[in-house]
Amino acid sequence: MTAPVFVDTNVFVYAREAGDATRQPRALSWVEWLWREQLGRTSMQVLSEYYVTVTRKLKPGLPPEQAWDDIDALMAWNPQPIDRDVMQRARAIQSRHRLSWWDSLVVAAARAQGCAVLLTEDLHNGALIDGVRIRNPFTHAVHDIGIEAYGAPAAPRRSGDTRRVPR
Questions:
Q1: How many Cβ atoms from other residues are within 10 Å of residue 26's Cβ?
Q2: Is 160 inside a domain boundary?
Q3: Number of C-alpha atoms within 13 angstroms, CB side, residue 52?
Q4: Residue range(s) defining the domain that contains residue 107
Q5: Would you say the C-alpha torsion 14, 116, 84, 159 has a positive or negative sign?
Q6: How many domains would you assign to the chain?
Q7: Is residue 22 part of a domain?
Q8: Is residue 28 part of a domain?
Q9: Cβ-based neighbour number of residue 85 at 10 Å
Q10: Rounded CA gap, 7 and 23, in Å?
Q11: C-alpha 139: how far from its chain's center?
Q12: Residue environment code for 141-163, b if the CB has 16+ CB neighbours within 10 A, otherwise e
């Protein structure tokens, strides 16, 4: 069985941003594979950051309706809410690993969803933080990681939506 994989904001942004000829194909490859295998996980925090980034920071930015369509599709990944338990775990992670608050929340959300791997370029590639392995999706191809090797429990497969988002 394969463990779920948590996706950070930058992966979704690069999948959408056509201006980066190196990162966009790699980000798209990851997102498409995660949709196909139904292993993608994320959080409400990540989706909020994605919306702000693609509508306000990208040049040109996406129209809000298009950004919302991406987020609406990603709701199929059952994004982790930032609740009391996630906040408390994030505080412990921040103290122990000296991460930023926002990165600590991402790691805590990944852990709450039973993810073995967190795809992000914002943390040290290869680090193991609170049981979650950090992998830079732009230096690792989908099949380089060997997700099953990290031993996190597999999430139940969900039927239904196989859309590729964002694109």
A1: 20
A2: no
A3: 7
A4: 5-146
A5: positive
A6: 1
A7: yes
A8: yes
A9: 12
A10: 15
A11: 15
A12: eeeebebeebebeebeeeeeeee
Q: What is the CA radius of gyration of the chain?
A: 15
Residue count (the chain)? 167
Distance CA 163, CA 76 (A): 10
Q: Is residue 161 part of a domain?
A: no
Dump pLDDT digits (tens) for 3-12.
999 999 999 9
Tell me which of 167 and 83 has the higher pLDDT.
83
> For residues 92 and 86, what is the distance between their CA atoms, to the nearest angstrom?
10
Provide the pLDDT for residue 146. Answer: 55
* CATH code of residue 71: 3.40.50.1010
User: Tens digits of per-residue pLDDT, 51-95?
Assistant: 999 999 988 899 999 999 999 999 999 999 999 999 999 999 999
